[in-house]
Amino acid sequence: MLKKIFAAILVICAVTLCGCNSVSENSGGKLKIVTTIFPAYDFARNVFGDTAEITMLLKPGMESHSYDPSAKDIVKIDDCDLFIYNGGESDVWVENILNSTENVNSLKMTDAVEMLNEEYTEGMTEHEEIGENTEEYDEHVWTSPKNAVLIMESILDKAKEISPENAEIFEKNANSYIEKINLLDKDFAELFEGEERFFVFGDRFPLLYFFKEYGLNYYAAFPGCGSETEPSAQTISFLTKKLNEEDTIKTVFYIELSNHKLADNLAEECGIAAEEFHTCHNITALDFEAGESYVSLMKRNYDMLKAAVE
Ligand SMILES: [Zn+2]
Q1: R_g (Cα) of the chain, nearest Å
Q2: 127, part of any domain
Q3: Is there a single domain that holds both residue 242 and residue 188?
Q4: Residues 254 and 166 reside in one and the same domain
Q5: Distance between CA atoms of 128 and 110, rounded to whole angstroms?
Q6: Reading across the β-sheet that carries 106-108, which strands appear in turn?
Q7: What is the pLDDT of residues 150-193, one digit of tens each?
Q8: How far is the CA of 62 from the centre of ligand 1 (A)?
């Protein structure tokens, strides 16, 4: 509720600001695209290329679920040619803004794919609100490379719609990136063919779409990627027990930007390694500056996973 009020106040501020602050940034005749999270940013730049100035609202290294838009961010959204966001429970603020601003051309990534319900596996420490028995969609749709392609295609369609004169450039850009994602997908499918062992995450698990795509089994400390909570004693002993059984991969996984305390403890306890599985949710400042992309981060995952499953 507080967040809602906050968003409403910001919208009012933004609308007021707009009047006297029109186009403070010079985009040099380029399209202005505003994105929320890293996958949206990365897919957009691989469609629009040099034709657009692309902004990512979530700063590198920031926790994706605690993001709150500033008044400046809202002005940017109000002023852009296309606003790309993910959709889902952490984007409620977006819907509030879109409801109260007029004519914002927007694209919701989750609209391009089929969504799955959050899943609870044995041994997980559940979020507190789960007692209410509410079914929730998992929003981390981009983690499946096949979904990434669908999202790219939907951004491409939108791009051609808002700037038909650049259609050929968009097609060329998008197709070259889609080809890279398809190759990755093929590599992953080959790597995981017949893989029946369990992957153990001493962490949150925003990788449901990736795991479903390749028919993989997993155990994790927490579902989805809500705010970091302490794992229960049952979770710790369950995961430790599983790691010592034969049908688990002998590596403990954690996700980017996590403190990976639990994964490290489990790894030490079982005498195995802990490795980062990058969900591309957000990116460190270092990786961002180095120009890492969805494809390069997924390739990093591939190399890590190849070593882990062999
Ligand atoms: Zn998340």
Answers
A1: 20
A2: no
A3: yes
A4: no
A5: 25
A6: 52-56, 31-35, 82-85, 106-108
A7: 999 999 999 999 999 999 999 999 999 999 999 999 999 999 99
A8: 12
